[in-house]
Design goal:
The protein is built from 9 helices and no strands.
Length: 171
């Protein structure tokens, strides 16, 4: 037998705080984060300890430009393996641009496929032309844009028949 019972409301984790108490706790949390070495700073743990919302603490940390992690140094050799080399990417850009100029615009999948082919021909087997890479490629080359193609006009399509073409060139 199944009984239907009213749901008991859970007790709030923290009693509601007034604005002064909230600001005091936030200041204490920020002061503690500043006192901890950068490599040991954990925002979530500090937020729980002082009873403040994690996102609120993160917002104020960013606002005050307090570092929460040590920036990693990028190895140039690793960076080259991850993405396309600049010369290869420039060659891809010129190819895509020229194809667009002659009226054969390439889609995102085509560009990603061509990029992977160029990377493989340059012995860069670890390159994966992901959607994220494609978005970044478009940001690096603002003259390329994603556009929706126009429909083929009915009158134009009707004019594209063999008799009309022969008639045009027999003038």
């Amino acid at each position: 037998m199944i009984e239907i019972c009213p749901r008991a409301d859970p007790e709030p984790a923290h009693p509601p705080l007034n604005a002064q108490e909230r600001a005091k706790r936030l200041d204490l949390a920020i002061a503690e984060l500043i006192s901890i070495p950068v490599e040991d700073r954990v925002v979530a743990r500090t937020a729980i300890k002082f009873g403040v919302k994690r996102e609120t603490l993160r917002y104020h940390i960013r606002k005050q430009n307090i570092p929460t992690h040590i920036p990693t140094q990028v190895n140039p050799a690793t960076q080259l393996r991850r993405g396309l080399r600049q010369a290869v990417e420039e060659r891809l850009y010129k190819y895509v641009h020229n194809m667009g100029m002659i009226g054969y615009a390439l889609g995102p999948k085509d560009i990603r496929r061509i990029a992977m082919g160029m990377a493989r021909s340059a012995h860069n087997l670890s390159f994966k032309g992901s959607k994220h890479w494609f978005r970044s490629f478009l940001k690096r080359h603002p003259t390329l844009r994603k556009r929706i193609c126009q429909k083929f006009d009915v009158l134009r399509a009707g004019a594209m028949n063999w008799q009309e073409i022969v008639k045009y060139f027999d003038l």
